[in-house]
């Protein structure tokens, strides 16, 4: 079974604008995917210029460095081509029959924000089948050429443009080397050389005067543009620029270097470089499904191509879609495109924050209406805890959950509190993948989340319609969980309780009891807690136990001697009545994961799933 992933932002185009925007968004802890076709506009050029601190860098080097930098902040990079983008109705995101999602409900990207387990440095892996930790609904479906569909809350388009070159034999082969267009990008490299300007439109005289600053040997070939206006001809003459009439037939190349321009008449004018004015065609055909079309790019009353129009921040006429770089500003240089990407990302992020805040306010008001006081919720717990790590020194008040603070062991609470307080965010915020795999097909009911941590599982369960009791010992973890469910708009479905599971256990029975990585480096009565979990399962309900099966490849060497209980041993610890229980799964699934420092490896988990008859 597959599950929908909704990203915060999909960036289409991995050039300077796209990577710059992705970097800013990644640093804001956004779930970002960059899709790039690997064909940057400036690929034929040898170097990038006027990019402060990167002057003269080869384009490929600049982009490789940029990709490495954004990857450090958890941005997912996909090689591919986007062929279509469409708006989707958030109400249908969980309906597999809806055409917006049925075509490809599985998105196998995942954010590598995942961080280490507290006691073995195990990274929570990026899993292809688990939904994202989005706080808001998807607005757009983005289709790739291979057939995959990505779902996203916002779209940043940085696809750039295609230069349509004059149809002169031999010209395209020299593009980016000795056939040029931008004096700021390439002028210094042809200083004091014989430069030609091919007139195909009204920019020829302007280009010639710019290059005249760099060399005193400039020739304008009128080609198909016809005679120059008298005032322009006068300016060129005053600056010593020669004008040659007649159509250009081809370029002359010797030893892989431009040596001349041949006219239809047969005359060859020696030149070392040729300047052209290509037509700019925005790479934006895939946006038509969003109702976005291109408009003429007009300078001085003349159209030089097309572009996607936007405001000063890059926001288009379609809410949620931003553009940056050459797709909207054909004249932007590499550094200008990078700056535009940052500016658009900042505006886009502010828009997401506004939406997240609006949802949080609505959830808070709904909670206030239900409880009568609008107070926060009491919280506790996390993955691999004694019922949950962390405390911030104060209990999260409010809510209708119970729990017994007096029965909490101070040393246990301090251990998990310190672990959580050591990082602003300990976990990825995503649900545990085996929970998604097992529970995704079940009808919602009541669920008990033992060691809820920062709320990734609780949020996901509530989004599926489950009424969740989330338990942890750490008030810091519980506070973060409460914030997560509030931001997700599901606070009304989650009740937080603080328990030290070694001493107290939540009351009641549940359709699902989930114990995900309930392992601890402290003295913890694991078997007794699991048997208490058995007693908390309602008739027809299920207990899901997922534990580490081995230390990850990047784990601390001192932990590699640790022996983890097998699934069979865990099943024995449950001490089940065989007449009253059915074992549905007993296995050791493997998964690919990324460690806290970018290491890749295979993790082994131990899984036990039992159902009360």
UniProtKB/TrEMBL annotation:
Residues 7-338 form the FAD/NAD(P)-binding domain. PANTHER family: THIOREDOXIN REDUCTASE 1-RELATED-RELATED. InterPro entries: FAD/NAD-bd_sf, FAD/NAD-binding_dom, Ferredoxin-NADP_redctase_2, Methyltransf_25, SAM-dependent_MTases_sf. SUPFAM superfamilies: FAD/NAD(P)-binding domain, S-adenosyl-L-methionine-dependent methyltransferases. Keywords: Flavoprotein, Oxidoreductase. The keyword Flavoprotein applies. Gene3D superfamilies: FAD/NAD(P)-binding domain (3.50.50.60), Vaccinia Virus protein VP39 (3.40.50.150). It comes from Micromonospora matsumotoense. This is Thioredoxin reductase. It catalyses: [thioredoxin]-dithiol + NADP(+) = [thioredoxin]-disulfide + NADPH + H(+). It comes from the Bacteria. Pfam families: Methyltransf_25, Pyr_redox_2. Residues 88-136, 364-411 are annotated as: Disordered. Residues 448-541 form the Methyltransferase domain. One of its GO terms (molecular function) is S-adenosylmethionine-dependent methyltransferase activity.
